[in-house]
Amino acid sequence: SYSNFTRAFVLSSRLWGELLLPLYLYRFIRLDFVTINLVVILDYTIIILGGIIMKKQNLLVLYSHNPSRLDHLLKVNLLRKHYRVTLVLDSKDVKDWHKKFVDEILEVSMTNSLVDLDIIVSKIKAIGMPDAILNLSEVCVPLHAALANIFNLVGMPPEIARIARNKYFMRRFAKDLGIPIPKFLLWNSDTSMEAVSTITFPAILKPSIGGGSGIIKRFETFQEFCESKDYYINLAKMYSKDPLFSETLDKNGKIQFVLEELIGGETQFDTKFPYPVGEVSVESVFFDGQCKILAIHDKMLPANGPFFEEYLWSTPSRIPKKLKDKAFAYVSKIHQALGAGVYVLHTEFRTFSDELVLLEFGARMGGGPIYTSVKLSTSNDFIDILIALSKGNIPEFSQTTPKPTITHCLWNSSEGQITQIKGLSAAVFNPFYMGMQIYDDIGDYVYRAPNSTRACGHIIFRNDVDNNFSVLEDSVLDAISKIKIDTQNNSIKPSESNSK
Fold this sequence. Notes:
Layout: H1 2-12, H2 17-29, H3 36-53, E1 57-62, H4 70-79, E2 83-90, E3 104-108, H5 117-127, E4 132-135, H6 141-150, H7 158-165, H8 167-176, E5 184-187, H9 193-196, E6 203-207, E7 217-219, H10 222-235, E8 257-261, E9 279-287, E10 290-298, E11 312-315, H11 321-338, E12 344-351, E13 356-362, H12 370-378, H13 382-390, E14 405-409, E15 416-422, H14 424-427, E16 433-438, E17 445-446, E18 457-462, H15 469-482, E19 484-488
Parallel strand pairs: 1-2, 1-4, 2-3
Antiparallel strand pairs: 5-8, 6-7, 6-8, 9-10, 9-12, 11-14, 12-13, 14-18, 15-17, 15-19, 16-18
Helix pairs in contact: 1-2, 1-3, 2-3, 6-7, 7-8
């Protein structure tokens, strides 16, 4: 029975067959009474060695719940073939279905994650020392930096995490690098009117912490700013879960903002979308001292305020080559200055005919459906790449030509309780349709800017036939014209909504 087991084990091991087969063959060369004990010992040795070799590695996945990350979770589930996966997330975000995607769930207080670091580390050690850390959320960047340092994995120092998370520090950092940025200042409840007067209006007010386009507001005049600023100070409490939130508060306990001059930006190519404000996001990784851009997404906007809700991501970018070269140069400069520990960046620019102006960067992959868009267009799996980089390995990259891919948000018509969602069945009958996800249900209360931080869903199309963006745009426009998410405003505001 030992012989049969050994034969099955050796022959089924693609990775270790060549290593173990000589031992297996040797045990059959001398089949006499004297060597029978050696045979048994070899059998057990191979079995034990194989168990050690085939033991799964431990993967920590840092996660903040957002329904647009379903594809991320589906990928995480597949990783369980090779890893023992532990999902680390805020206890307030835990859903019953999370446990279906992972092996372990570690609940933490994300707000206090840096304060509770010793406790979190002890719990992680009890599960198993991590071999890699995968971060899927901007709010988890500080915790990622701290854990990577403790467990001797590739990652950024905590002070670099603060630059990547704080919009004011990030702007100062980019300015020192000579990268074009809007004129800005740090504003809080004690900032003098004299200081504010150095900013030319219209101007943009945005919290110094937080992700996405939530509660970013354009003010036409200084007077409008003075009349409305207190409302946005209170609204910024939605980011209180961030572990760095307390560090952004002024001496009065109120969050600090970045006030910056409004800039323009024009779409630099022909498009059928009625989105004239030009903007791009760049997904990049860094290894061996070199920057590699995985994708550039065109993410044009319908208007330059008063709010800045995102509508689409289209890749590969159609901006002129000279602007793509600038994007590479600026992102490379940021990577080099931040250091090897920051092996991934999501960077956003406004586009002009001869220049790019930086809006912000984050030390994580782009949010929402960008992971899926990159994979569909380039065949690169962003998550596999990030795990390899976390372990200090050089990732494998696809060499296929990127395919035109457009992801469009599905927005509710207005703030209120969803009364009906229609047009879904008609929108999918298109040869370029790749997928769709609806985040909210009938009866859920959903928001619009400045209270919302996400849409109610997204839909994705890809042109596998040729490089024709025009017909792809026709498909997207036809689909979003059919899909309607109607609402009725009332005073009932359930906890599940797109303000989260």
